[in-house]
Sequence to fold (376 residues):
Amino acid sequence: MRVLHFYKTSFPDTMGGVEQVINQIARGAAKLGVKTDVLSLSPDRAARTVEIDGYLAHRARLDLQIASTGFSASAFWRFSQLAKKADVIHYHFPWPFMDVVHFATRVKKPTVVTYHSDIIRQKTLLKLYNPLKRKFLASMDRIVATSPNYLATSDVLEKFSNKVSVIPIGIDKATYPQPMPDRLQFWREKIGPKFFLFVGLIRYYKGLHILVEAAQGTDYPIVIVGAGPIEQELKAQAAQLGLRNIHFLGHLPDEDKVALLTLCYGVVFPSHLRSEAFGISLLEGAMYGKPMISSEIGTGTTFINIGDETGLVVPPSSPVALRQAMRYLWEHPEVAANMGKRAEERYWKHFTAEKMVKSYVDLYGELVRHHHGAGR
Fold:
């Protein structure tokens, strides 16, 4: 069986949440004998097809980008050629250009789309895109939601509930580096033995301005790992409030990120908008056995973090509630440790890459069998 994944970006060019999911599925499926191609766009004129962990990553040239949507003239031909060899086409939503390519190339293969997120921000453009979006989703053989929470709260998915399956995102701990003792010691000395940690892109929906505000009147260290478009705004906010307990570390190598995940007291994840559809870095906290603090936004964050079981769940956009949650965990180390233990148990039960990959490979097989049966 051969599967073609199609998304606007992919590893090794970028490694955001969706790219990480595609990489985990592709490398895991290869181990199960599924041949995998991944097609994405790249601004690199010399971008070549490369083999990564048993699968092929192809890139078409990025010609234009409007409102976070990449366009490519050469992608039509590249997609058409790869689709001819594939048994299943696996799309990753949202990316409006992908819908255009799907219809323009007249795909006749079994199709599945992983619905990573509703479109939240581009309200005006969304009105123009809605007819194409509905047509595209209606044409899919199967739609995959990444959590039951998102399926239950998405108005879009509700319209297609008869063809939606839930396959939670999973990650493979074996692919994470083991931090060396000297790196652990370095961060222990730099930050201290007890601190809260945030890891992720610094973007508008991550709620980090709420975390900065919540840090007022506290003295426990808060470490922010990541870079992004509002990084300078957050630093200015922290400086204006006179906060000295927030450490902005920027983008770090994986070994340092893992060292901080290993050492931290708890993971804080204040995303306050539905643009945060799942929260892979929150899942990393669970994988490393840390108690978590997140907001209830009706998405996968509250499927990962179960309130009062694996951590604390607070109302979104509430600095007061976030501050109270941090204080409670800080002052109740035994409760925090037990929550972290249950978080790790939940990771091994629901969120391993192995479990996710098997679910997708089973789905691919089901779609191929149904397609062949319908052909007869």
The longest helix spans residues 353-375.
